[in-house]
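Entry 14. Ran structure prediction on the chain below.
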Amino acid sequence: MSETISPIDRERRAFLRTALAPSLLVLVIIAGLPTIYLVATSLTPFSMVRPGSATDFSEPLRNYGFLAEDGRFLNSLWVQAKLSVYGVAAQVLLGMLLALLLHTRSTFIEVTRTFFLIPMVLPPIVVAVIWKLLYTPDISPLYHVAQLFDLTLPAMTSSVDYALTAIVIADTWEWFPFTFLMVLATLQTIPDEYSEAAVMDGAGRVQVFFHITLPFILPILIVSGLFRLIDSIKAFPLIFLLTQGGPGTVTEVTNFYAYILAFNNGEIGYSSAITVILVAIIITISWAATRAGTNRGGAT
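Output, structure tokens:
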């Protein structure tokens, strides 16, 4: 049975399409056209040293065929996976713990909360400069304090064992406020009657957390973790300024490898193929994050 649309609804839909048209047009121009060009370029052997290669579509899947045999590309995916998993896990855990600690009615605590949001609002390049100073032994206050106590700290960004850890620490410092803010907002929506009733029944703080608080904040932990997982793929400024992908390829994530191929080696086509794969991964994670947010909204 076909749905009958009233004249008012038809006019409303027409108005909405007309109102959205300019925004959609701008979106297509800004995001759609570069994406189409990126995909088209990934189907060519485009190289800055080979004239005419930008329009050579004779072997469209050539670049993608190389990916499975490119050990450096596969290593960059593994490095990205480690950076994302370790970083997001640390951000979610630290943000949750801090939100639980500062979830109290106090004027001093409310003012203190604001300071924890500062790293998140700083430009990424500023965060990278801050940690560049902290990781440079000659000028870092951390290394000077360690010397006062006769402690020896490793050179974080130039050490094979600690370089990736250094990136994880800097990325966690920058973005744990995101989870902190999300969890804190959720905690403030939990009715006090639930925990008060549980305490009256003899439940301890640990039991209250696992049986009352955690079920409330678990959906937001999942959603914030997924969104941070998406953003963790864009940790380019930290890696560019702190390690340049080194030492060796220890911190060379996929987008940085694509950058090297395009701007250092001139292999635009192959770099575009890697970027397309990266975009596909981001779209998949974004879809998962959207689904998680929708399910949470429906459950609420």
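Residues 77 and 254 are 6 Å apart (CA to CA). Will compare against last week's run tomorrow.
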